[in-house]
């Protein structure tokens, strides 16, 4: 870091931040510093197996819960599940370097909702070119997909599917749902293989896809193992950041600071810098620069529970070397006005010899909160998700679980699924007993978002405008999932990268 003053500092090298910094540094006249709290592996061969191989554990999140690559947060899911693990990537590539590699886009109706909330630049039509720009889809070439972007996408084809995945598609189609070969088509609904960013079993993170393009640029600097403690703000203008590196407290300065630390890290840094709810800041001794009521509010995610079956005794469990095969049903719950408000995913766990159908709720009614509890940047904020804290959320999830139990009785699963392991018969006796089971099992789908949402300056709960600029603070933006008004009906890795691309374009005009 020979240069102590940059045009732009980007904090966080994850899904959005790596995309943003790479695109900004395409302008050779703009100096860009990308700051990442975790380690950086400069080439593919240096990557640890748990990061490089998408099938490292056969689970949704690859990393050791206590390992160096995981922030290892915890949160309160429900009153009956108060110690929920919240893994987030602490590495260049961020959570895209440790995730389950599902590459689902937000659907057009998601963009419609953001526009209706006053963000007309985020229509599907205006955002589609950036979704196309970031991807290299190996299977589909049409007006909706890209074929030369930095993130490689593929799908398991029907003749590649292992038995339980093929059985899921058969059971679901026999139940009357349509088949889809492309979950990322704007009109798609139904059952089919999920698009995955894992060519040849490699987890294709933004560190591989984006940062590889930027590393050799003379105007681009990565500072890894650098824990940002706060944004430096003078007279309501961001002038740089303070961060810890090699045991020392350092500062770097820039004309503009962009927080891409994710929907936990970005609002946390705002609060540590004096931007947030006055009562929370004063309670821990932080000087209030701006009483911003929306910081940390509107926490959104996709609640998920899993119906589990024992595998038949003589069934050969799938080999994790085949990668994280996942087929999914995206569907609209009964009487819902929200298209594709539910998802069901078929998975296996070979070490436990069990199969799972995870029921996921898109567009939950309930919202949670992120609260500051310490002025120490190493102390995580309190994460209270409020999952299923709404009668309609419980209603849709009850229906989803009961549907999945029926799907598991289909003849296609003969010789694969044994008896249901969880929930027990007693859990299914009534809505009340099933509610208790749901509240004790509900988990994050790892799609936390919306904790510093965008909106107009006269909206007291909006933290940024639609260009990511923090209201009332010059030279400070947010570019990650924090700014969304609601969680999209998709896994959030692809939307996060799209946000990085979109904000980079705003900043280049």
UniProtKB/TrEMBL annotation:
Residues that bind FAD, according to the entry? Answer: 95, 99-102
Its required cofactor(s), as named, are: FAD
Q: Name one GO molecular function term.
A: flavin adenine dinucleotide binding
Q: Which InterPro entries match?
A: FAD/NAD-bd_sf (IPR036188), GMC_OxRdtase (IPR012132), GMC_OxRdtase_N (IPR000172), GMC_OxRtase_C (IPR007867)
Q: Which UniProt keywords apply?
A: FAD, Flavoprotein
Q: Which PROSITE patterns match?
A: GMC_OXRED_2
- Where the record annotates domain Glucose-methanol-choline oxidoreductase N-terminal, the positions are 262-276
Q: Does the keyword DNA repair apply?
A: no
Q: Which family does it belong to?
A: Belongs to the GMC oxidoreductase family.
From the Swiss-Prot or TrEMBL record, give the protein name. Mycofactocin system GMC family oxidoreductase MftG
Name its species.
Answer: Candidatus Lucifugimonas marina
Q: What is the lineage of its organism?
A: Bacteria, Bacillati, Chloroflexota, Dehalococcoidia, SAR202 cluster
């Amino acid at each position: 870091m020979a240069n102590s003053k940059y045009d732009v500092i980007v904090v966080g090298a994850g899904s959005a931040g790596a995309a943003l910094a790479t695109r900004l540094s395409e302008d050779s006249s703009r100096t860009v510093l990308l700051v990442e709290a975790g380690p950086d592996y400069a080439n593919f061969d240096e990557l640890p197996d748990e990061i490089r191989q998408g099938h490292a554990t056969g689970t949704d999140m690859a990393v050791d819960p206590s390992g160096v690559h995981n922030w290892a947060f915890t949160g309160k899911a429900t009153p009956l599940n108060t110690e929920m693990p919240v893994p987030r990537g602490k590495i260049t590539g961020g959570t895209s370097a440790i995730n389950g590699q599902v590459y689902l886009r937000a659907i057009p109706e998601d963009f419609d909702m953001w526009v209706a909330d006053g963000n007309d630049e985020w229509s599907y039509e205006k955002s589609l070119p950036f979704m196309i720009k970031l991807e290299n889809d190996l299977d589909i070439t049409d007006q909706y997909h890209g074929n030369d972007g930095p993130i490689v996408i593929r799908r398991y084809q029907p003749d590649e599917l292992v038995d339980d995945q093929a059985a899921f598609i058969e059971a679901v189609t026999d139940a009357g749902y349509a088949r889809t070969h492309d979950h990322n088509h704007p009109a798609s609904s139904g059952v089919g293989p999920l698009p995955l960013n894992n060519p040849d079993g490699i987890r294709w993170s933004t560190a591989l896809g984006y940062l590889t393009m930027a590393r050799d640029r003379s105007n681009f600097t990565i500072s890894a193992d650098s824990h940002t403690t706060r944004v430096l703000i003078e007279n309501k203008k961001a002038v740089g950041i303070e961060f810890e590196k090699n045991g020392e407290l350092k500062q770097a300065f820039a004309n503009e600071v962009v927080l891409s630390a994710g929907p936990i890290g970005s609002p946390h840094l705002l609060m540590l810098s004096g931007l947030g709810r006055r009562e929370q800041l004063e309670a821990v001794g932080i000087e209030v620069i701006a009483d911003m009521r929306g910081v940390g509010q509107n926490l959104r995610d996709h609640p998920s529970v899993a119906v589990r079956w024992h595998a038949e005794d003589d069934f050969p469990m799938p080999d994790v070397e085949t990668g994280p095969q996942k087929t999914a049903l995206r569907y609209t719950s009964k009487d819902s006005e929200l298209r594709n408000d539910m998802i069901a995913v078929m998975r296996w766990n070979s070490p436990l010899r069990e199969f799972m159908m995870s029921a996921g709720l898109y567009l939950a009614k309930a919202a949670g909160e992120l609260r500051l509890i310490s002025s120490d940047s190493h102390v995580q904020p309190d994460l209270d998700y409020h999952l299923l804290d709404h009668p309609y959320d419980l209603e849709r999830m009850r229906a989803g679980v009961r549907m999945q139990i029926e799907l598991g009785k289909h003849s296609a699963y003969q010789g694969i699924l044994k008896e249901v392991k969880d929930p027990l018969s007693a859990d299914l006796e009534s809505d009340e007993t099933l509610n208790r089971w749901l509240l004790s099992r509900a988990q994050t789908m790892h799609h936390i978002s919306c904790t510093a949402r965008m909106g107009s300056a006269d909206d007291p709960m909006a933290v940024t405008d639609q260009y990511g600029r923090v209201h009332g603070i010059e030279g400070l933006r947010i570019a990650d999932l924090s700014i969304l008004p609601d969680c999209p009906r998709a896994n959030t890795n692809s939307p996060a990268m799209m946000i990085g691309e979109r904000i980079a374009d705003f900043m280049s005009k």
